[in-house]
Amino acid sequence: MKHMTRKATRHxxxxxxxxxxxxxxxxxxxxxxxxxxxxxxxxxxxxxxERKDLGHLPEVSEIEIxxxxxxxxxxxxxxxxxxxxxxxxTMKYNPRVNELVVRLEGLANGHPYQPERISQGALRIxxxxxxxxxxxxxxxxxxxxxxxxxxxxxxxxxxxxxYHESKGDPRKKVLIPDSAHGTNPATAxxxxxxxxxxxxxxxxxxxxxxxxxxxxxxxxxLMLTNPNTLGVxxxxxxxxxEIMHAKGxxxxxxxxxxxxxxxxxxxxxxxxxxxxxxLHKTFSTPHGGGGPGSGPVAVKSKLExxxxxxxxxxKPDGTLGFEYNRPQSVGRVRAFYGNFGMFxxxxxxxxxxxxxxxxxxxxxxxxxxNYIRKGLEGVYDLPYSTPSMHxxxxxxxxxxxxxxxxxxxxxxxxxxxxxxxxxxxxLIVPGALMIEPTESEPKEELDLFIEAMKSIAEEVxxxxxxxxxxxxSTRVSRLDETAAARKPVLRWKxxx
Amino acid sequence: xxxxxxxxxxxxxxxxxxGARSIDDLFSPIPAEYRLERDLKVPRQMAESExxxxxxxxxxxxxxxxxxxxGAGAYAHYRPVIIDSLISxxxxxxxxxxxxxxxxxxxxxxxxxxQTMICELTGMEVANASMYDGSTAAAEAxxxxxxxxxxRSVIMARSVHPEYREVLxxxxxxxxLPLSTTSFKExxxxxxxxxxxxxxxxxxxxxxxxxxxxxxxEDAAAIAEIAHKKGAMLVVSIAEAVSLGIVEPPxxxxxxxxxxxxxxxxxxxxxxxxxxxxxxxxxxxxxxxxLAGQTTDRNGKRGFVLTLATREQHxxxxxxxxxxxxNQALVALMVNIFMTIYGKVGLRELAKQNLAKTAYAxxxxxxxxxxxxxxxxxxxxxxxxxxxxxxxxNSRLLGHKIVGGLPLKKxxxxxxxxxxxxxxxxxxxxxxxxxxxxxxxxxxSVRSAKEEVDVQExxx
Lengths: 496, 460
Prior knowledge:
The complex is a heterodimer of chains A (496) and B (460). Chain A is of the alpha/beta class and 496 residues long. Chain A has 15 helices and twelve strands. Chain A has helices at residues 42-46, 62-73, 96-102, 105-108, 120-137, 149-166, 183-190, 208-214, 237-246, 340-376, 397-400, 406-415, 443-462, 464-468, 481-486; strands at 141-143, 173-177, 194-198, 219-225, 250-254, 274-276, 297-299, 311-314, 320-323, 392-395, 422-423, 432-435. In chain A, the strands form three sheets. In chain A, strands 1-7-6-5-4-2-3 form a seven-stranded mixed sheet, sandwiched between helices. In chain A, strands 10-12-11 form a three-stranded antiparallel sheet, with helices on one face. In chain A, strands 8-9 form a two-stranded antiparallel ribbon. In chain A, helix 3 runs antiparallel to helix 10 (340-376) and helix 10 (340-376) packs across helix 13 (443-462). The radius of gyration of chain A is 25 Å and the shape is globular. The model of chain A has no long low-confidence stretch (mean pLDDT 95). By secondary structure, chain B is of the alpha/beta class. Chain B has two domains: 81-339, Type I PLP-dependent aspartate aminotransferase-like (Major domain) (Aspartate Aminotransferase, domain 2, 3-Layer(aba) Sandwich), CATH 3.40.640; 344-459, Aspartate Aminotransferase, domain 1. Chain B is 40% helix and 13% strand. Chain B is built from 14 helices and 15 strands. Chain B has helices at residues 8-17, 23-26, 48-60, 81-87, 90-93, 105-122, 134-149, 162-173, 192-198, 220-229, 313-316, 329-366, 390-398, 429-459; strands spanning 67-68, 126-127, 153-157, 179-182, 203-209, 233-238, 255-259, 275-279, 292-296, 302-306, 370-371, 381-385, 402-403, 406-407, 418-422. Classes of the chains: A alpha/beta (496), B alpha/beta (460). At the A-B interface, helix 1, helix 2, helix 3, helix 4 and helix 5 of A face helix 1, helix 3, helix 4, helix 5 and helix 6 of B.
């Protein structure tokens, strides 16, 4: 409690009901221009397909809408307010120039089917970003089509499957370490692979001898996150790649943690065959409350024929265009070309950084994580002493003795003015506290965070009830998630 | 680097605090032979003003200030100003997925309102928080029907957006789901006789789009009746959300997969857009994607949480309903604000303007060329068949700073020289008249060239 006011102070926030509760007939926030063509009779044109009633859509004025959403917004935590140390999520600063350039008229209003000759600007952006990402990953080719990381995984595994099929055998299994993100096994299942778990060793890394024993000609690929979800770099990565390649398997890298590597080491140089990136993590596009993301997939040349269609190309006359005739392609994974608006933002971020900025960014991200690790070592249990890269994973082992779990600690952190870290993940650490500060935090914010975490640890010793009842300073106290799932109320209805 | 909040002295002090000599110590876990010892070959660090200039140049090369008749799954509607004012608030823009409900009530309540309005518009009982886009939502909706029925075959209408069909083909291929296609009739609607014949005891569902790719409104009730009689489901894709303002939703559907881009989302060269799946309450546990639900806190106060997470990958891993994690939250917020602005009355009036512009344009075009599929109601798209290639006509139209309809040769070679034209409330009468004028001119010159040939043949 004693340090609580250093980062945050309670502040009046406005109450606000559901928008439907403000609606009344005759209010409007819209105005259409007069029609310059004859009016039509909808009933005559549409017959029985005409809709007569729009149900309970609201009728409200513009100022009410502004206040409604502004009030709601003030109930959210955000990077703009402070550190957002969610491990694996890379909640870094979202530069505002990115938001300006994506709204430039020709880019915001560009139709995906407009003729290529008036799409050269968008195509140039796609090409330049592709080249930058290929260089950053050390791979040979890339598709920007996937809409998010999990969609990138799907695309990557489809290509893995197409590659093996081209050799006459699609294979049956994908190996996935027990520390992996949940999307990895879910994706493998969607592509029709069975999932085989790979146990981590005592240092939290892939057990190379276990891998050698499990690897055989039925295995299509290993899906590996590097650094892994403990924030640990797989030091024997090349051996891992060799084991996979020796039996004809491929090495897939989940690039969720690429923020630890950019400008310092390239996956293509350490044996990765196919990987996805998350532009909404490493490359600063905003999370926006859960999306949109963008999940480009970079590959080595042997997988290039299988890229989704269309593929951007330079034509003989020097102009840019799309190539659709790709007989070995896995097909399309999304309509049009992907989340183009995210490409614009990611490229603006790369241009703002340059090679020196990208390297410094990675160094600062790793520096920040290790500074937190040093500051909290001894206060919280560190289950793996292996060196950390961009994130550090503690456990609630010491606090659990007093009946306080990682989720309780996380909720208490809210009272101190921070967003919680990632709780209960990775699965190989019971009661995990997964902390990723990113490069965006100044030393002062990190010191406040360390101080808050120490103070909470003291509270657990002196007054565990305070921690168990947290958060105490929010608009709502802990919400009943069990009741929400047991009797789901998923929409508003009049009179409830 | 201006985004990095540390002085050299800060970095030094931090390294000292942890007993490291230099930053290289922290990277020692990376084997030396793989470390990159050179600069990345990416453009040099640019000033903000240079970045803005570079993208302005790209914007100018990208059809800046053209009027468009393109639709086909991406629609040019007016975007009210307050959408961007509101979504630019850092508390929405820079927040994460609302897993920590106590400090995410803003996002959660907004999702709850979004789900409610999507239900109202589609006539369904539940809607999720969003999917990537209309194409992936359609594919996931089909997968959902496969799980719900325990059957494996899928029928798709040839009048579904060709790229949506390609995405479904990709998704279905590796799950070994047999896919077949049913054609359309003279009036542009699904061929019901052919459809009925193609249903087998293994048919999980039929995927249709309404309004379909040609703008024609399908008879969803009739299709549902045929499908349901044989135990198959009806999955309906809606790519033009504004149609819901005046076109009766396919209430007989089992699953609706929407693309909500029309509701305030910029065209943005194809994305990010906003998919969403809506369905009946009894099917909710097979629905992919996030859901917000209402609950109470310890003091009985109303609040919202993400719920039914046992469907999702972070809990169920390989047994999840989908691998989807990140969705399109901020885009769904644009859609939400758009629906709130137009509301119950405005959305109908907006849709009616689309209908009026399209009726006028189709009538004008039909004076000079053939407008296909006139036998069934349409919303804001129609197909015009010309004597000359639409590429040639469009090329001349570009000179007037107008982008003509989408040539269909690539997707529907059987329709000959046909193009898909779209009118919205933003289409002006003068650009319609200009486009019709060029089509008329093209028809006249083709006709006179033909007459000349005929005259020569007679002379010979």
